[in-house]
Amino acid sequence: MFSKNKNDKINQQLDMERIPNHVAIIMDGNGRWAQKRHLPRVAGHKQGMQTVKEVTIAASELGIKVLSLYAFSTENWKRPSSEVSYLMQLPVRFFSTFVPDLVKHNVKVTVMGDITRLPESTQQAVRDAMADTANCDGMILNFALNYGSRDELTQAAQKLAEDVKSGSLDITDITETTFSNYLMSAQLGEYADPDLLIRTSGEERISNFMLWQIAYSELEFVSEHWPDFNAKSLENAIIAYQGRHRRFGGLKNQ
Ligand code: IPE
Ligand code: IPE
Ligand code: MG
After folding, report:
1. Active-site residues (predicted)?
2. How far does the centroid of ligand 1 lie from the alpha carbon of residue 225, in Å?
């Protein structure tokens, strides 16, 4: 009688008073979406770009403060060079058509990851988008581009070691807060840690995404491939999130 399946959750209403501040998404399944339609994998990436646009606007209208999107991992360089080249061109195409909409919705673009390894035209598109939206103070659209969490943590360790060596940081000052300030997510300030992490395509793994920051995130794995995900799917994921009881190690009604 009290069975709780996924459809029950979908019939519940979204509570606009309890929208998560930071939503992070592992956008997965573009290749499989395309293959199911007998299309080349890159057709899935192209369609996935449309999903990014729809979900960005929807997230901003819901009042989400930060939307982090995993677009290219430090491990994705292992893919065939033709696919990598296509993925590298996507930010150029995305920003060339979408920056006016971002500005209209007051969305500011930020990036996590080492963009210096990307082709010059991609770096330029990313830098221009950040500059063009620098004065927007609504939602932050935070792209993880050539991002890997182990890379982020390793780089943080190197910078910390340098600062200790130069005397600007004392070992006893290395707290969880100071450590967080050395991560690529530090630019997100009080919203650095995702409240909700969504992964599409049915895979239930983290694939080197924000390992430190998701310590207490609610995880939602959905079966849709990324090109099929939409504003309604985002709402459903948030409804599922709103049904969770976050305890952070304490007790439910504390
Ligand atoms: C996600 O889709 C996009 C990137 C990782 C760049 P995939 O390309 O991983 O699609 P699948 O998982 O192979 O279907
Ligand atoms: C994770 O997806 C990376 C991005 C979404 C950018 P992958 O498709 O690369 O992850 P694995 O290889 O299935 O773990
Ligand atoms: Mg994948």
Report:
1. 28, 76
2. 9
For 7, residues 6+ apart whose C-beta sits below 8 A from its C-beta are none
**Is 28 one of the annotated active-site residues of the chain?**
yes
Q: What percentage of the chain exceeds 90 in pLDDT?
A: 94
CB 51 near ligand 1, within 6 Å: no
Catalytic residue (choose from 76, 114, 163, 230)? 76
For ligand 2, atom 12, name the residue with the nearest CA: 207
Domains and CATH numbers, the chain: 7-242 (3.40.1180.10)
Q: Report if pTM > 0.85.
A: yes
Burial class (CB in 10 A: 0-12, 13-18, 19+), 105: middle
Reported as a single tens digit per residue, the pLDDT across 181-210 is 999 999 999 999 999 999 999 999 999 999
Position of tokens 């780089």? 155
Residue 1 above 80 pLDDT?
no
